[in-house]
């Protein structure tokens, strides 16, 4: 279900990676020679004016380039028309990790409080959960809806534009998934990422709100997060919740940390 505001955004012409390429790309033109079996590959620069127009229109910056090279890690179906905005590029959960989160949920209603362009919501919906996907940015919800269509799961997701904290009193579910902003790619420069650095509110407030919605909470956090602080979150509940901390590896490198709180901690994914 989409609001008029979101539907209007979808109608506007937006950057569609499947159709147009951002500034940093070079166009690869395949020239077929007259002889059938001879092909020449020529690399030419995009027309400059077109680039400038695209950059202005689409808000694509060189920052995105690095993430574009990881596009299939982010969405396996990227080439089928996945859509992103700049923040989406560096904030989406890589698909393998999102699949893992979804496997751990078990079932029921999953509330994705910071849905972004849909990386997690899509995988939750793929595993047959009913998903409530919330984001404060209407453009993100519009992109998440489009991306969910690529995976054929848009019908399993309720898309809501709104502030997670304001909506919280009206929400109930089995699992709350929290993937809040980490403050941009600069999070990496911190030796230890403390929970007060999470946006738009610190990790403690966030966790307490989530607990009022569901008995199970999943938090997706930077790889340099202060693990002691994460464990301490479980003590905000009485009796303290079970907590499991998982290291998320991608191509043999530590990418992020996921904390599972409640009965889903140490749950056996083979049972789902
Ligand atoms: C790290 S991204 C989420 C990425 C998402 N897990 C994915 O895989 O696509 C965080 C998102 O939180 C949204 N956000 C920030 N403040 C919010 C709020 N108060 N309520 C709901 N969403 C918010 C941002 O617009 C952003 O899209």
From TrEMBL:
<keyword id="KW-0489">Methyltransferase</keyword>
<dbReference type="Pfam" id="PF09445">
    <property type="entry name" value="Methyltransf_15"/>
</dbReference>
<keyword id="KW-0949">S-adenosyl-L-methionine</keyword>
<keyword id="KW-0805">Transcription regulation</keyword>
<keyword id="KW-0808">Transferase</keyword>
<comment type="function">
    <text>Catalyzes the 2 serial methylation steps for the conversion of the 7-monomethylguanosine (m(7)G) caps of snRNAs and snoRNAs to a 2,2,7-trimethylguanosine (m(2,2,7)G) cap structure. The enzyme is specific for guanine, and N7 methylation must precede N2 methylation. Hypermethylation of the m7G cap of U snRNAs leads to their concentration in nuclear foci, their colocalization with coilin and the formation of canonical Cajal bodies (CBs). Plays a role in transcriptional regulation.</text>
</comment>
<dbReference type="GO" id="GO:0005730">
    <property type="term" value="C:nucleolus"/>
</dbReference>
<comment type="similarity">
    <text>Belongs to the methyltransferase superfamily. Trimethylguanosine synthase family.</text>
</comment>
<dbReference type="GO" id="GO:0015030">
    <property type="term" value="C:Cajal body"/>
</dbReference>
<dbReference type="GO" id="GO:0071164">
    <property type="term" value="F:RNA cap trimethylguanosine synthase activity"/>
</dbReference>
<keyword id="KW-0963">Cytoplasm</keyword>
<dbReference type="GO" id="GO:0005634">
    <property type="term" value="C:nucleus"/>
</dbReference>
<dbReference type="GO" id="GO:0005737">
    <property type="term" value="C:cytoplasm"/>
</dbReference>
<keyword id="KW-0539">Nucleus</keyword>
<protein>
    <recommendedName>
        <fullName>Trimethylguanosine synthase</fullName>
    </recommendedName>
</protein>
<dbReference type="InterPro" id="IPR019012">
    <property type="entry name" value="RNA_cap_Gua-N2-MeTrfase"/>
</dbReference>
<keyword id="KW-0597">Phosphoprotein</keyword>
<dbReference type="GO" id="GO:0036261">
    <property type="term" value="P:7-methylguanosine cap hypermethylation"/>
</dbReference>
<keyword id="KW-0804">Transcription</keyword>
<comment type="subunit">
    <text>May form homooligomers. Interacts with CREBBP/CBP, EED/WAIT1, EP300/P300, NCOA6/PRIP, PPARBP/PBP and SMN.</text>
</comment>
<dbReference type="InterPro" id="IPR029063">
    <property type="entry name" value="SAM-dependent_MTases_sf"/>
</dbReference>
């Amino acid at each position: 279900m989409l609001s008029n505001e979101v539907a209007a955004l979808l109608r506007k012409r937006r950057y569609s990676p499947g159709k147009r390429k951002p500034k940093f790309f070079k166009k690869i033109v395949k020239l077929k020679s007259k002889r059938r079996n001879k092909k020449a590959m020529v690399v030419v620069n995009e027309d400059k004016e077109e680039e400038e127009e695209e950059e202005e229109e689409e808000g694509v910056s060189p920052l995105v380039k690095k993430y574009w090279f990881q596009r299939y890690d982010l969405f396996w179906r990227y080439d089928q028309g996945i859509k992103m905005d700049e923040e989406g590029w560096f904030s989406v959960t890589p698909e393998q990790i999102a699949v893992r989160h979804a496997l751990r949920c078990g079932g029921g209603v999953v509330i994705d409080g910071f849905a972004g362009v849909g990386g997690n919501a899509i995988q939750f919906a793929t595993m047959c959960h009913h998903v409530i996907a919330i984001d404060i940015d209407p453009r993100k919800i519009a992109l998440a809806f489009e991306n969910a269509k690529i995976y054929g799961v848009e019908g399993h997701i309720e898309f809501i534009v709104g502030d997670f904290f304001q909506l919280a009193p009206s929400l109930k579910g089995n699992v709350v998934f929290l993937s809040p902003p980490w403050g941009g790619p600069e999070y990496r420069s911190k030796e230890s990422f403390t929970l007060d650095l999470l946006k738009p509110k610190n990790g403690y407030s966030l966790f307490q709100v989530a607990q009022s919605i569901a008995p199970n909470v999943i938090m997706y956090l930077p790889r340099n997060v202060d693990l002691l602080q994460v464990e301490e979150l479980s003590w905000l509940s009485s009796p303290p919740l079970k907590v499991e901390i998982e290291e998320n590896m991608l191509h043999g490198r530590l990418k992020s940390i996921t904390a599972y709180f409640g009965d889903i901690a140490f749950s056996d994914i083979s049972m789902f």
